[in-house]
Specification:
Elements (H helix, E strand, L loop, with lengths): L7 H6 E3 L5 E4 L12 H6 L3 E3 L2 H10 L4
Antiparallel strand pairs: 1-2, 2-3
Amino acid sequence: MPKLKTKSGAKKRFSLTAKGKVRAGQAGKRHGMIKRTNKQIRNNRGTTLLSDQDARIVKKFLPYG
C-alpha cells in the first residue's frame, strides 16, 4: 500500500496530544481587538482542544498523527 499524504494546511495548524486529542490555536485573535473585552483577549491566548466532532474531521487530514 502507498503511504498516505498529510494535508499540509492541517499540519501547520493542528497538532495531536499524547492522548490523541487535537490541539489548535484560539480563534478570534486576528483583528478587531478594540471591540473585545480584556477578559476575552486574555482567555483567547495560547491553544485550545477541539471538540470531538471537529477533531474527527481534522484527524482524517493527519493520517499518521
